[in-house]
Amino acid sequence: MVQANWRVYAVSLFAAIGGFCFGYDTGVLSGVLTMEHFIWTMRGRTFLTPLETGTLTGLLLAGCFVGALSAGQTAEILSRKRTIILASIVFMIGCAVQTAANGYGMMVTGRAIAGLGVGSLSMVVPLYQSELAPKEIRGRLISLQQFMITAGLMVSFWCGAGTQYIEGQASWRIPIGIQIAPGFVLAVGAIFLPYSPRWLISKGRNEEALDVLARLHAGGDRNSPIVNEEYNDIIQQVELERKVAVTSYTELFKQKNRRRLILGIFIQVFQQFTGINSIMYYAPRIFLQAGIAESSATLIASGVNGVLNMLATIPAILYLDKLGRRGTLISGAIFMGTAMLLCGIVMGSVAEIRYNEETDQNEVILGFNQHASYFCIVMIYFFVAGFAYSWGPTGWVYPAEIFPLNIRAKATSLTTAANWLMNFVISQIVPIMLADITWGTYIFFGCCCYAMTIAVYLFYPETKGRSLEEMDLVFDGPILVYKQKKLAKLQEKTLQSEEKGGVEEDETK
């Protein structure tokens, strides 16, 4: 089993470089948006309007939406592995266009192209990891994707903080150009990754699938009981699902699949309405609102935020398969909601709102109250830590594991596309919210987090410890999960009562 684990970890971690590309490209813009040379190159003036800022962020996300949808088809036809390679190449092309951009139009074009690659990677990497992982550590392995996303965010923040001291165009071209390197490493290295054994079996390449399972789980021993058990389970499931194969996206909405699809889509939508990307995309501006005055200070505060985000993801990697998905999501939502509400309440109580004629925006002035500034910054850090251990990783784990093989690629592409669609919406509205309702932005996202707590408690069943082939059992119960728990307890009591009655009858005889 030790051999099995290190091989699976190595493959899953390397595939998660796709998450690093995702995280870096998401975070790099937040630092670049405050650089004078970048702003002047884009528009020939000293500021960007909220709409222009939102568009620069949003075009990446629009590309991600399209990329996530298209990856559902390529993952089925070309394989998960080849889709990773193709997406990495598209990502590199988009990054190169951004790096060479000489104006606003070229930059948004590069952002859209890179988005196609990032969206495909964000869909296919968790799917690939879920199909390689043993059920006992599946949550941990898919969480590596989120860990690498946070690593990419952290590196991008510090690159932005470091290059701001460089004079001229290099100050923003260097941090944007750096992201080509991980894309190249992934594109070349993925050539040597194994194919998904579940995809191989679905294509009739059973012997290759057995070899992959043996290498990953038993050091190459094709006769291992663990390997043969998983191999036979997959074959049986594939044969069963071929009889009800899904040939179009419309069939995903039929009664048998509808519940899982709705839960998968909404967990991705909820992940965005935590407000995490309002922090990640516009961190320097948010720390400026919280009372850090200088541009360099806001970038450093964002860098510290990135480090905390990455470190707080580690508990999820270690304990998600022990603690379960439901408890992690509920506790994280409560933690984040409390932090957001407290930040908004304090900021609203003591901040001064001033209108800036140059940028045509409202600005929060909190620096005169040092204690309130520190408190709001700490609450933002608490919020990020709460997201990193809960909704960050679990938001990707849950959709990747709940669907049967015959719809997994198509369904996961829809759930991931929903994530990017809501991400796009958030990127468009947050600059306007920060400018118009200022501290009310934090109150809004805090309330969203509490609403998510209720939704998870009512509708989301626990999936830990179940194989991908056992998920039908999880979702056959009542739609309201607490009723499912009551039913399970009642069945357990009935069984115990019957066993006790049987024992008493034997004793009487």
Question: Could you characterize the architecture of this molecule?
Answer:
The chain has 509 residues and is an all-alpha fold. It has one domain: MFS general substrate transporter like domains (Growth Hormone, Chain: A, Up-down Bundle). The chain has helices at residues 2-15, 17-32, 36-43, 50-77, 80-99, 104-132, 138-163, 170-178, 180-189, 197-202, 206-218, 225-242, 255-272, 276-281, 283-289, 295-311, 314-323, 325-350, 370-389, 391-401, 405-436, 440-459, 471-474, 481-508; strands at 352-356, 361-365. 54% of the residues are buried. GO terms for molecular function: carbohydrate:proton symporter activity. Belongs to the major facilitator superfamily. Sugar transporter (TC 2.A.1.1) family. The chain crosses the membrane at residues 54-72, 84-101, 107-127, 147-166, 172-195, 261-283, 295-320, 332-351, 371-391, 411-433, 439-460.
Per CATH, the superfamily is MFS general substrate transporter like domains
CATH architectural group: Up-down Bundle
| Structural class category | mainly alpha
**Beta strands, count:** 2
Rg over alpha carbons: 24 Å
Determine the oligomeric state from the structure: single chain
Transmembrane segments: 54-72, 84-101, 107-127, 147-166, 172-195, 261-283, 295-320, 332-351, 371-391, 411-433, 439-460
Protein name: General substrate transporter
InterPro entries: MFS_dom, MFS_sugar_transport-like, MFS_Sugar_Transporters, MFS_trans_sf, Sugar/inositol_transpt, Sugar_transporter_CS
Membrane topology: Multi-pass membrane protein
